[in-house]
Amino acid sequence: MAQRSLNRVLLIGNLTRDPELRYTPQGTAVCTLGLATNRSWTTESGEKKEDVEFHRLVAWNKLAELCSQLLAKGRKIFAEGRLQTRQWTGQDGVQRQTTEIVIDEMIILDSRRDFPSEAAGRVAVSAEGELASEPVREEPAPAKPAKPTQAKSAKQDDQEEVEANDIPF
């Protein structure tokens, strides 16, 4: 009987650079992302410490294309995927190795207010390219009263009728 195993990574952090979209010779989209996660703790002596961990994320196919379109340096995301270690020989002949997270789910956690050029709301994307969004409800700016074309006397203001359309709420 085969034993079960689990290779799952869940991360929430900020992108350290803009996504890099490339295509394999077969035409498959691949996007690499840099993600930073922070942790803080207090030592026994009461000193506060902080540490940053940097992660290399890789998305494939439709998810890769969506990541390159929707993400930018500084965005806060949730990413879910699996650890993968790769080995290769560099152009200089040196054997190299890297461990990366191959993501199959990604959710944008910040809003349009933080990144005005981006779409509003939270956006969730799966490896299959399924896109779901939760629009962020933004309150409209209060309506400014129209500037009068002429100055009115206080007596005219008291006698003027107020229509329902004139009330800003």
Helices and strands, with pairings:
Layout: E1 9-15, E2 20-23, E3 29-42, E4 48-60, H1 61-70, E5 76-89, E6 95-108, E7 122-126, E8 131-134, H2 154-159
Structure explained in plain terms:
The protein has 169 residues and is mainly β. It has a domain of 118 residues: Nucleic acid-binding proteins (OB fold (Dihydrolipoamide Acetyltransferase, E2P), Beta Barrel). It contains 2 helices and 8 strands; from the N terminus they run ββββαββββα. It has a 5-stranded mixed β-barrel. A hairpin with a 5-residue loop joins strand 3 and strand 4. It is globular and about 55 Å long. About 15% of the residues have low confidence.
Structural classification: mainly beta
Q: Low-confidence spans: pLDDT under 50, at least 5 residues?
A: 134-159
What is the helix/strand order?
Answer: EEEEHEEEEH
Beta fraction = 35-45%
* Helix residue percentage: under 10%
What is this entry, summarized?
The chain has 169 residues and is mainly β. It has helices at residues 61-70, 154-159; strands at residues 9-15, 20-23, 29-42, 48-60, 76-89, 95-108, 122-126, 131-134. The protein is globular.
List keywords for this structure.
169 residues, OB fold (Dihydrolipoamide Acetyltransferase, E2P), five-stranded mixed β-barrel, 2 helices, 8 strands, 9% helix, ssDNA-bd, single-stranded DNA binding, Primosome_PriB/ssb, Single-stranded DNA-binding protein
